[in-house]
Amino acid sequence: MITACDIRLATDNAVFCVKEADLAIVADMGTLQRLPTIVGHGAASELALTARDFSGMEAKELRLVSQAYPSQEALMAGATAMARAIAAKSPLAVCGTKRVLLYQRRAVEDHSVADGLDYVATWNSAMLPQSADVQEVFLARAQRRRPNFSRL
């Protein structure tokens, strides 16, 4: 399931495993499709074929998680701070960024960089003119305050 997440965090001592080989089955929930693009083909093959456990610290080294924290408390504090930082952004910008990232994630198989640039240009030309968020950012900066973004 972790491979389907946009942002992945763990504690240093978290335990991960692609367990299916130990269960005499082939992973069928997208792990084998997503994991190689995250950690590389060689690491994904080794993890899937051995079904070995690996720690949150190793998951960070493999780039499976973006942050590994020393404790559950530190993880929750880090996750909360990250959520607050994202929530403080323009909802339209966050939504658009996620859509473009998801589109481009398929780039290896389906889309070139040029396709991705065309997609984001189309997104921005469709969404930004109707958004007051861009104007609000500049106004808030001029007034030295936090922006108040509109809802989606």
Strand coverage percent: 5-15%
Taking the sheet with the most strands, its summary is: 2 strands, parallel
Q: Which structural category do the helix and sheet elements fall into?
A: mainly alpha
| CATH topology category name of the largest domain | 2-enoyl-CoA Hydratase, Chain A, domain 1
**What is the C-alpha radius of gyration, as a whole number of Å?**
19 Å
Number of strands: 4
Order of helical and strand elements: EEHHEHEHHHH
Whole-number count of domains: 2
Q: Which percent range fits the helix content? A: 40-55%
Strand order of the largest sheet: 1-4
Low-confidence stretches: none
Task: Describe the protein.
With 152 residues, the chain is mainly alpha-helical. The protein has two domains: 2-82, Alpha-Beta Complex (2-enoyl-CoA Hydratase, Chain A, domain 1), CATH 3.90.226.10; 89-142, Orthogonal Bundle (Lyase 2-enoyl-coa Hydratase, Chain  A, domain 2). The chain is built from seven helices and four strands. It has helices spanning 31-39, 41-50, 56-61, 72-87, 91-105, 113-127, 133-142, and strands at 9-11, 15-16, 54-55, 67-69. The radius of gyration is 19 Å and the shape is flat. It starts with 8 loop residues before the first strand and ends in a 10-residue tail after the last helix. The mean pLDDT is 89.
